[in-house]
Amino acid sequence: MAQPYLSEMPQVCGVPGTPAVQNHFDVNAAVRARAGVYIHRVKRLKAEGVAVADEILSLAMENEGRAVNPFGDLGVAAQLQQLNHDIMQEFQNVQGRLDNLQNNLGDRLDNLGERLIASSNNQSIRIQNMRATDESHRLLPLQREAAVPNPPPAGAGAVGESPVVMHEIQAGVLQGIFPRNREEMGVLTPDDMTALETFYGRNPGGGIRARRRDFAIFIGTLPP
Q1: What's the domain of life for this entry (predicted)?
Q2: What span, in angstroms and rounded, lies between the C-alpha atoms of 183 and 160?
Q3: Are 128 and 140 a contacting pair, CB within 8 Å?
Q4: Which of helix, strand or coil describes residue 92?
Q5: Long-range pairs, 24-27, Cβ under 8 A, ≥24
Q6: What is the DSSP letter of 170?
Q7: CA 76, CA 24: separation in Å to the nearest integer?
């Protein structure tokens, strides 16, 4: 088995030992600092009269020298090889960051496109809702156009998704959060409003009447 590039150093009179480093490629700032601290503290022990074996002192000094200049005992070809290795590693790191940025930008553009489509669809839906002047006229649910946080809160709709209309039966279960008409919209409870605001990503605040009014403006039954 090949000898390690930096030898393992034992604990000496309270000075923590250091692990071996197998290859000069593994020498980094932390390794250099560890080797420097070790030799400094061992030399101080020696100066204070503590019996430190000359072999340990010599090995610690050798480790420090190798750590400070890990390529000092390599030929030019090996140093060029290491330089090429470092350049390729940095290139891969940069490429990885660029790929992540590109993927993130692509996701954002896709999401923006979906939001624009939902916004365009909602304009037509608001016009239909504005024309539903009778209390019993059916209202149409808007699509969510607000961006969805990550992770999305429970009950949040996806961009482009419409909520289920109140009192609709799906899979044999009575469901729905969107009011069917103006009459139902006028009796929405605080819990109803919270469900709708969470679905659409809205947070107007205020009392129940203010929240109902904000929602009526949002879906087009009241002018802004």
Answers
A1: Eukaryota
A2: 26
A3: yes
A4: helix
A5: 24/66, 24/70, 24/71, 24/74, 24/82, 25/82, 25/85, 27/66, 27/67, 27/70
A6: E
A7: 15
Prior bond to 151 cis, omega within 30? Answer: yes
CA distances from 217 to 9, 169, 188 (A): 74, 27, 15
Containing 46, the helix (H) or strand (E) segment is: helix 29-47
Distance CA 224, CA 220 (A): 8
Per-residue confidence of the chain (224 residues) as pLDDT tens digits? 568 888 899 998 888 989 988 877 788 888 888 888 998 888 988 888 888 888 998 888 888 888 877 665 554 555 566 666 677 777 777 777 877 777 676 666 667 888 899 999 999 999 999 998 888 789 999 999 998 888 989 999 999 999 988 876 666 666 789 999 999 999 999 999 999 999 999 988 899 999 999 999 999 998 87
DSSP 8-state symbol, 204:
-
